[in-house]
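Quick question: what would this complex look like in 3D?
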Amino acid sequence: MPTPPDITRELTQLIEEEGPISVERFMGLANRHYYATRDAIGAAGDFITAPEVSQMFGEIIGLALADVWQRAGRPDNAALVELGPGHGTLADDMVRAMKVAGLEPAIHFVETSPLLREKQADLHPNAIWHDTIQTLPTDRPLLIVANEFFDALPVHQLVMTFTGWRERVVRLGMDGFEPAPGEPSKYGEVPPHLRHVDPGGIIESCPAARGLMRALARRLRDQGGAMLVIDYGHYGGSHGDTLQAVHAHAYADPFARPGASDLTAHVDFGALTGIARAAGTHVAGPVEQGQWLVSLGLSNRAAILTRNAPGRAHEIGDAYRRLTHPDEMGELFKVMAVTAKGWPEPGGF
Ligand code: SAH
C-alpha cells in the first residue's frame, strides 16, 4: 500500500492557508483519513461494536428484516443495503439468518474506506460497493441497516459567546489543534428556546446525517422497504457538545490526534425522525437497544447457542449482558425503524 498522507500536516497546512476550519470539516477530514488507514474495530483496534460482540446481534436484525419482507409479500428482488459495514460481520450474521427465512438478497455496501472494503470482500465476495447512497439501485425495495454509522458523520457546532452564537472552529494553538469560536453564525439553526444560552454553551447538528436520512427516506417511500438505524444518541433537545474521540478503547481529546482516533457524536434521533416523517415514511422508535433485542428473542437465541456449545456459556452470557445491560450498550444505544407507507413495521417497537 502507498504511504498514507500525513493528516496532521495536511490539516495544519489547510488552516495556515485558509484560516480556522469548522469543527465539521475537521471531523470529516479526520474520520475519512482514520477509516481509510486503520482497522479501528476490534480488540486490537480502538472500539468494539455490537456485531463484534456476538453473532446474536446480526441474527436478530436479519430475522427482523426477513420478517418484514415476508409480511410485505416476499418481493423477490429486494436488496440488502448496509451503510458502513465495518468488517462485514453484521452482514454475515444477517444473511445467514435471512437465508433460514427464505430471503437471499443481493448485498450492497456503502463504504468509503478501501481498507475496510478489502476486509468486507473476504466475507462477501459478491457484494456491490458504493461510495455514496446515490448509486444504490432505484428499481427495487431496499432493506437498509446502519449500525454505528450515523455517529461517525461530521457534526456542525455553534458556540455561545458574549457577542452571540459563533461557528465553532479549529485553529492552531500553542499545543496543536484547538477549538475556538469563529465567525458569527450564518445559519438560522438556533432554536428560539436556545437563543439565551450562557457563553460557552454549544449546540450541534449533523447536516450529513440529515441529508442522508432525507435521501434514504425518499428512496423507501418510492421503492418500498425498511431501514433500521442502530446507534447511540438522544431524542432531540439540546445536548451540548457530544463530540468525542476514542483511541485504544479509552476516551481521548478529539482535537489532539486527528486521524488516529475515532471521532463520533451522539445521533439526534429526534431530528432524524422529523426528516423521515416529512419525507413520507413511517417511523417506529427509537427504543433502547437492550429492550428491542430482548423483545425479539435474544434470550431464546442465547439459550440455543449455549445448548449447542455448553463450553461457551460464559462467553455467551457475557455478550448478552454487553448488548442489553443499561450500564453497557443496552440503554444508550437506540433502534429506530423507517418504513415505506404500506410496508409493515418491524417487530420490537
Ligand atoms: N457497522 C460496523 C462499523 C461501524 S464503524 C459495525 O457495527 O461494526 C463506521 C463504518 O462506517 C466504517 O465501516 C467506516 O469506514 C464507515 N464510514 C464512515 N463514514 C462514512 C461515509 N461518510 N460514507 C461511507 N462509509 C463511512
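Answer marked as accepted. The chain has a mean pLDDT of 94.
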